[in-house]
Amino acid sequence: MSDASDATPESHDADRLAAVDIALARSRAAPRSERDLSGTVLAERYEILERIGAGGMGEVYRARHRDLPKQVAIKVLGQEFTSRPEPIERFLNEARASSLIRHENIVDITDFGHDDAGLPFFVMELLEGESLRATIEREAPMPWARVRAIM
After folding, report:
1. Could you read off the pLDDT of 22-63 as tens digits, one per residue?
2. CB neighbours of residue 63 within 10 Å
3. Structure confidence by residue, pLDDT tens digits, 90-122
4. How far apart are the C-alpha atoms of 97 and 125, rounded to whole Å?
5. 93 lies in a domain?
6. Do residues 95 and 57 touch, judged by C-beta distance below 8 A?
């Protein structure tokens, strides 16, 4: 990564692109949980409809709030991280921090906590469409203008 004293807009873009590349590599190498919560009810109010993704720390599900006519995305901490307090706190801190950000490129966090069994989760707006990973895999190598538009 470049030093802040010699930073230019281009070097900041290169740093951001490198961070995206590292994150994608880590997510590909992350262990995948065999757990599937589809068909269950989380925290007595979210009906889990289907698993729609997985990342380095957990799974993401499409769900429906039982009392509101709204579908949401729910991120649940992976089982391999639930036995230690540090990953749980980091996961919930991600939800707290994200809930404070209001930006068109950041999903809105609407709820978070633990279910009755102690499973940490957070609820966010459901975005339809293709994942960043799928876009990169389909369009690679991307022209620089396309990369800048995504970032």
Report:
1. 555 554 444 455 689 999 999 999 999 999 998 888 999 999
2. 26
3. 999 989 998 999 988 889 999 998 988 888 999
4. 15
5. yes
6. no
Residue 36 φ/ψ, nearest 5 degrees: -140, 115
d(CA 9, CA 16): 11
Q: Pick from 125, 127, 129: which is nearest to 65 by CA?
A: 125
At 108, which CATH number?
A: 3.30.200.20
**Closest listed residue to residue 147, CA positions, set 4, 2, 5, 21:** 21
| Count of structural domains within the chain | 1
What CA–CA distances, in Å, run from 96 to 6, 80, 141? Answer: 33, 22, 35
